[in-house]
Amino acid sequence: MDFIRAAAAVILLAVLGQAAVVSEDGLPIKWGKAPSELSQLPTADGVIQVNPWDYLQRMALYKLLINSTDPYMSSMGPGDKENPLWSLPLQLGWKLRSGRLTDPSPGSSSSCGLESSEPVCISTQSWYACMNYYMSVLPFLAAVQTGVVKKGEFQLQIQVPSEVSQDYCANFTDCSTKHPDAMTKWEKFFQSLQQISDSEDTDFSKKDKILGLLWAAEEASLQTASTACSERQKLYSYPEVRFAQGWLNSAAFVAAARFHANVERSEKLMAPLPSRVLQESDKPPNIDDLSAEENHALHIFSWMNSINTLLGGSLVNLWRSAMCSPQAREKGQGLLHDLILDPKFPGSSLMAILTEMSTSC
Ligand SMILES: *[C@@H]1O[C@H](CO)[C@@H](O)[C@H](O)[C@H]1NC(C)=O
Ligand SMILES: *[C@@H]1O[C@H](CO)[C@@H](O)[C@H](O)[C@H]1NC(C)=O
Fold first, then answer.
1. Do residues 2 and 51 both lie within one domain?
2. 48 and 146 housed in the same domain
3. Shortest-distance Cα residue to atom 12 of ligand 1
4. Ligand in nearest proximity to the CA of 64
5. Residue 76 near residue 84, CB atoms below 8 Å
6. Residue among 173, 175, 178, 179 whose CB has most ligand 2 atoms within 8 A, to mutate
7. Structural domain of residue 26, as residue ranges?
8. Which long-range contacts (C-beta less than 8 Å, at least 24 apart) are formed by 282-289?
9. Domain co-membership, 352 together with 245
10. In terms of Cα–Cα distance, which of 323, 301, 189 is closest to 253?
11. Closest Cα to atom 4, ligand 1: which residue?
12. Centroid of ligand 1 to alpha carbon of 67 (angstroms)
């Protein structure tokens, strides 16, 4: 039972708080400045040359992804902020705003990755930018390949600076060869969208299926990225690495519930993330210049790391086993939502619900 209480506490504390600024006017940072059409991206000899180390171009990939999947997302609810892909550009915006797209190498004096750089660039050395590559370029290539993003007569190439070309795949074939699991799952997601949305299913069932395929792709991307980006993670302080691992681990909880990360819920989930990169001298959860909510989230992430290690991963497994059917997952999401809106939501009733859920599977 302690496991369930622990799982509930993790989710509760990960979603509460209102510290970090992750959006501008309810949209991702600098969203309005990013190109919204393929034809606005740089081209050479009729080939579109996307530079994903230009912040606005990386954002443009998300604009195109959201724009072209919106027609299949009506089961997510009315309005233009329900597409679950919104969580990805919102996260990229938080990374920029919190200084996580800069070069973490000790002594680096580069201004790349600062919001004030012009054009706003992304450091090829940033671990966060590396992780995000797998959550932006990979899905984009799969979306183009499956025809969800219409490429028309254009060919597409991703610009990878030669000094890091070993580390990043550059086109669909290359990425599929190097990261077959993630690319297959992204393809499956995009290929299935039209069929699911055209089917006779209820919206409830469509939404569950779409979110299931999306989270499967996101988890596969995070998995392959964790390995591919691990050298870059070594450039950060111990407290920052601990936080980052906790944040990554928490994805398993929201993924198992097939969390519908629309704009509003993504903002709430990200609000307590630390608003700057942590230094070696920082002692979470007692960092003076961070808010109480940010310190609290750091405490929970660190605690979660320890408990997951101690329990050999059974914390996540318990939550996963409770999220066993569309109905259970809806309840799980409802629980997450109540927890977001009601800080006094009683842990005891949550436990009762989770217990019932895992036994009724
Ligand atoms: C996608 O973008 C095009 C061009 O910018 C626009 O005309 C269209 O309405 C957008 N579609 C959706 C579903 O947002
Ligand atoms: C894809 O990228 C790889 C690695 O950069 C390159 O060798 C290959 O020629 C590219 N293929 C196409 C079709 O551009």
1. no
2. yes
3. 67
4. 1
5. yes
6. 173
7. 21-179
8. 282/237, 282/239, 283/239, 284/239, 284/242, 284/243
9. yes
10. 323
11. 37
12. 6
Q: Let me know whether 13 and 85 are in one domain.
A: no
Q: What is the pTM of this model?
A: 0.89
Q: Are residues 245 and 296 in the same domain?
A: yes
Ramachandran quadrant class, 344 (left: phi over 0; alpha: psi -120 to 50; beta: rest)? alpha
* Residue 356 and residue 242 share a domain: yes
Domain shared by 13 and 81, yes or no: no
Task: Read off the pLDDT of residues 302-338 as tens digits, 9 standing for 90 and up.
Answer: 766 676 676 566 667 777 888 999 988 988 887 766 6
Residues 249 and 150 in one domain: no
Q: What is the 259 CA–ligand 2 centroid distance (Å)? A: 36
**Per-residue confidence (pLDDT) for residue 13, from 0 to 100:** 47
202 domain residue, yes or no: no
Give the nearest ligand 2 atom to 173 CA. 1
The minimum-distance atom of ligand 1 relative to the CA of 80 is 14
The structural domain count of the chain equals: 2
Write down the pLDDT at residue 17. 40
> pLDDT below 70 — which residues of the chain?
1-21, 151-153, 303-305, 307-308, 310-315, 336-355
**Assign residue 237 a region: left if phi > 0, alpha if psi is -120 to 50, beta otherwise?**
beta
The first and second tokens of residue 51, run together, are 């530079």
Task: Say if CB 216 and CB 181 are below 8 A apart.
Answer: no
Contacts of 282 (CB under 8 A, 6+ apart): 237, 239
- Copy the structure tokens of residue 242: 């601990």
